[in-house]
Design goal:
eleven-stranded antiparallel beta sheet, Glucose Permease (Domain IIA), single chain, 20 strands, three-stranded mixed beta sheet, 2 domains, 10 helices
């Protein structure tokens, strides 16, 4: 038995304060932000996502521009920086289009030109990292990370037959997990789920060192509920819409099973109007929704679109936002509805046992 001697009160308080300060929760207080800060944990937020958002530069970089269909906001950070999950999410798709370099005519303004291609006389940018990961979160939103350098969620990217080519996109197909050793055992064990704050990859370089983060919200409640069911691996209810003409009783259009009531209605109304296009506007205006019924089952078409073609599915059924503007964010992972900073401090990474 160890006998404890009485110690002065001030010494006891100093010891307790030292013990408390050794834990991260004492060092950094949890905080929720109304908007994503323009600078955090070594990240500088610059050009905004533009597709669907009507934002060109945004408050963090008003002078920034970008192509009209840009889906993610730029997070400028050192190449190789760990990037974390901003929420509890399920993987939909992972792809790799990386190249050792990219020959392009759009690089001068970035100041990253590594040389001039002898044949095309265009500038050379390298490296060019292009791993993309699509997730669906517990809100029914789709989270997109791209311009990542690496991800441990896939075993064989940049190895063997999946070694990235010298030139970006020249004569090659997109690398997918099924062709590159499959998904990691841990991801499969967790039913393709990742937890908020878990490292999902390393930031890359594409013209400049950065990765991009996009958040797409469903166009309506039906799509949202469907994506929530995908997240939970459950079956869904679907809609079948029937459209008829007030002026021609023989004309009727019936949709396939659709997860969204509005999508089923819109598709059949468009079909009816196209059918009567040669008959003039009056006949087109005679189209009306006769009925919409709900049915049970599995609609593989839409599910496959989100799993296999999320790029086109998100453009049609989702609306990309300006993530730095439209959501609440937090600096430490909690069960709150706020999204987590996509890059965390080195101390946090050490505490969760992350090692490169």
């Amino acid at each position: 038995m160890i006998l404890m001697k009485k110690i002065p009160l001030y010494v006891f308080l100093v010891l307790m304060l030292s013990l408390f300060a050794s834990h991260s929760f004492a060092e950094k207080k949890h905080k929720i932000y109304k908007n994503l800060p323009c600078n955090f944990n070594g990240v500088k937020v610059t050009g905004s996502a533009r597709l669907h958002s009507d934002v060109k530069g945004g408050r963090c970089c008003p002078e920034c521009t970008g192509y009209e269909k840009r889906r993610g906001t730029t997070m400028r950070v050192k190449r190789g920086t760990p990037v974390v999950a901003i929420a509890d999410m399920k993987v939909l798709k992972i792809e790799d289009d990386s190249g050792e370099q990219r020959t392009t005519s759009h690089s001068k303004k970035y100041g990253m030109v590594e040389g001039i291609d002898f044949y095309s006389k265009k500038e050379i940018v390298k490296p060019f990292d292009a791993i993309r990961i699509y997730f669906v979160d517990t809100k029914g939103n789709i989270i997109l990370y791209y311009h990542l350098k690496e991800t441990h969620l896939v075993n064989g990217f940049n190895k063997g037959k999946c070694k990235i080519p010298f030139e970006y996109k020249w004569g090659r197909k997109t690398f997918r997990p099924e062709d590159c050793g499959g998904y990691s055992k841990e991801l499969i064990k967790n039913n393709f789920n990742v937890k908020k704050g878990q490292v999902i990859g390393l930031s890359g370089n594409a013209y400049v060192a950065h990765f991009a983060l996009g958040i797409a919200v469903p166009i309506d409640e039906d799509i949202k509920n469907y994506l929530l069911k995908i997240n939970q691996d459950t079956n869904s209810l679907f809609y079948i819409a029937t459209v008829k003409s007030k002026k021609d009783n023989l004309v009727s259009f019936k949709s396939e099973k659709r997860i969204s009531k509005s999508v089923a209605e819109d598709e059949m109304m468009k079909m009816c109007r196209i059918f009567f296009e040669v008959d003039g506007e009056q006949m087109q205006n005679s189209c009306y929704i006769d009925s919409v019924v709900q049915v049970e089952g599995i609609e593989y078409g839409l599910k496959n679109k989100f799993y296999n073609s999320p790029y086109s599915a998100t453009e049609k059924y989702m609306r990309f936002t300006a993530p730095q503007r439209d959501f609440k964010w937090e600096n430490l992972p909690t069960v709150s509805d706020a999204y987590l900073f996509p890059v965390m401090s080195k101390k946090y990474l050490k505490e969760i046992g992350y090692k490169k």
